[in-house]
Predict the 3D structure of the following.
Amino acid sequence: MLVNRTTVLLAAAIFLIAGIYNPASAGEITIENYSDGDIPQNQTNNSQTVFTGMQTTTNNSSQIAIRCSPAIYGNRIVWEIIRNEYSNHDIFMYDISTFEETQITTSGKANDPAIYENKVVWIYYLYGNAHLYMYNLSTEREIQITTNESIKSNPEIYGDKIVWDDDRNSNESSDFYMDSNSDIYMYDLSTSKEIQITSNNSTQKIPAIYEDRILWQDNRNGNWDIYMYNLSTSAETQITLNNLDQYEFTIDGNRIVWMDSRDLSDIYMYNITSSKEIPITTNQSSQISEINVYIRSWNLELTDPLDNATFTISGPDEIYVGNGSYWTIFNASAGTYTINHEPVSGYETPASETKNLTAENKIIFSGNYSLKKRSTDSIDLGDGYILLIKQIDTANNEALMEIQLDERTVNEMRVKKHEMVEFYKTSYSVNESGKPGLLDIIIEDISQDSDGDYIKICITPPDIEFALAPEKKLIITSIPEGANILLDREYIGKTPKEKSIIDLRTYLICLELDGYEIWEEKYEIQPSNEFEIEVEALLTEKQPSPTISTTPISELRYINISSIPEGAEVFIDGRYIERTPAKIAIGDTNEHSVCLKKEGYTDYKDDFQFHSGESKIEMKLELQPLPTSPTKQEEITPSSTEEEGADFLAISVLLTLIFGYFTLRKK
């Protein structure tokens, strides 16, 4: 029994010693390495949440964004991300094999990405013009492909060939901008040459390319057909012959598939080798002859301004009279039908149309009522914004227009005929009127009638779906009231003011009122905030102004501040000035403080002073990222206090066991 007790105590001591000196518990950091790509489901990696086979990215920021226009090649996915209520567009890429997300563009004006192998292409859109760009993932080099000043869209790439639709040959006599001529162009990266693929005086758009075949939508026959061009044979082929619309097509090998409206909505396929068309699905409801009428107004001023717009449709054995924005008649007899629209005050009346209805088919009439406006007329854009027509210049085919908010001019612009201008009411709010915050303003025509000069103007939101987002209400008040409110340096009205917010982030609020000091504060709006966020400012009266300096401009001193990354907020003596890069005038030789702030980076602070004869100070700063917290894969190293406490306890127990061992031996 003595031997057993002694043996047990000795074994326990040895076991405890081994535990104390186990390297795994000696203060090391244990890291699980998933470099082979076998990341478990729901395992965090580089701020992405990876769900194997299901989801690639999640949005971890509070900023509301829309992700759209995805494209894929191999393990790489590209997409467009839209922030700030459509004012910022950029291209991102995600690599499925490395679990890495990469921002491809930073311009804020990149749209419609496409990818093939290591090449990413997109459209850079700015102020009525667009250019095609490409980024090579291998060389990390960005290249501008096109230089022609025109609207370009829908790029696609296969091998070294890029295709897109281009409106440089737009038909200026078109009554409606969407009916103007656009063509398909191609750029060959291997030869650095641009080639015009189509030249027909109609609209060709939305191209696709596979090997040496280019496809597109074409309305030269009065409906949307699919055409193909073979680069090897230089031959153009009409793929679809039906007199209704065919669209949403794709090509793989020798097969083309598309969505077809001849059967209301069905899928068809064309075999290039056999030149045969095959219906893939059959809609049973397509056996009914049908006439559809769509009436559009392109007007934001009234909720439903053309509900009473009437029209007459004359057919082979009956005359139909209808009204409203949508009208349908079923079981119509086969034959020729003509629609005539009745005038509506303040609008250009649509032209009459004639179409042929065949048995078990349908025809569609579209009436586009264009808004007629004259000099001094105005249009209510909602939320206090007014568009004022100041001058119509028929000689130069342009109009001078002004946008006002609370009777204060916020934008003035000269717009040419057929030119489109994007206008953003605000970059941060859902508008209280329910009218869109981003608007496309297009002058369709500039003309004259018996009452004088007028423009036909189209004002519409862009064709894009809104992402649902949580909404907060920002309530800004001041004592006294009536102060001008600038939210992120943009005027939004006077106090008191309520604004709905969906872009949850930090905002700079500035209040200005004559006779009072400027009031500025930053407010961070988070999902956890209450629905109503109140900001109340007590304004301070201005003190008598000091004598104005008469220093000549040539003797002013400047500080040039640049930062990596750019866009940091610059504060001089605690007052916000602007963002980097910045050139700031300093009127004295006193010592001043400078501070740079940027989200995600450590604040930079320093003092500066101009010495005698010195007129310029250069500051080139590289901001340091904020330290990141350890990831879930890491076990944090125990603190020295924890280590010492654990070691002391273990040694005490060890000494007790050794003492017991020798006591038993003496017995």
Observations:
- The mean pLDDT is 76.
- The first helix runs from residue 2 to 20.
